[in-house]
Specification:
single chain; alpha+beta; 4-stranded antiparallel β-sheet; 3-stranded antiparallel β-sheet; 5 helices; 7 strands
């Protein structure tokens, strides 16, 4: 297995390697050496470690903390930028068209794959998108936070209650 171990304080170095090699950045606790660490692994290497070294709860644990694989690398990057922007905005403003109105990430139509959509959908945010198809050239990919949707629902319920 060709993976390098890093100490927890080397997270930036490990992240850079994971991005370059398009791999998982994992965190582990090795009970045998009583040490925390980081590793940069492929999906296969992670499964191999889980199946052999960490097959027993007393051996420690390993988990993915950042995913830079080919399938989801761009989605992870976009999601981090979206979440950072949402933290800056009030709930009612947390709606971003990441394809057209979000220069913080360089997202192109080719980046929006089925894996990208699945990963973004699993984030807990609401997605509304339209991609170019035959006879239709409109393209957008809007991400709306749950906080924004809840705020909107509350305002609608209050407006309905006021009219009764």
């Amino acid at each position: 297995m060709k993976n390098k171990k890093f100490w927890p304080e080397q997270i930036e170095e490990a992240r850079t390697l994971a991005i370059q090699e398009k791999k998982f950045l994992t965190r582990e606790y090795d009970a045998l050496s009583d040490a925390d660490g980081l590793r940069v692994l492929t999906k296969g290497e992670l499964e191999e470690l889980k199946g052999s070294r960490y097959s027993c709860i007393y051996a420690g644990w390993i988990t993915v903390i950042e995913d830079y694989t080919e399938e989801t690398g761009k989605a992870w990057e976009v999601l981090q930028a979206v979440n950072a922007r949402f933290r800056e905005l009030d709930a009612e403003e947390q709606v971003i068209d990441i394809l057209n109105d979000f220069p913080d990430v360089e997202l192109g139509l080719a980046d929006i794959t089925d894996d990208f959509i699945s990963y973004m959908g699993a984030s807990g945010h609401d997605l509304t998108y339209s991609l170019p198809m035959e006879g239709r050239n409109i393209a957008y990919f809007v991400v709306t936070s749950r906080a924004c949707l809840e705020d909107e629902n509350t305002r609608m319920m209050m407006a309905e209650a006021a009219t009764m």
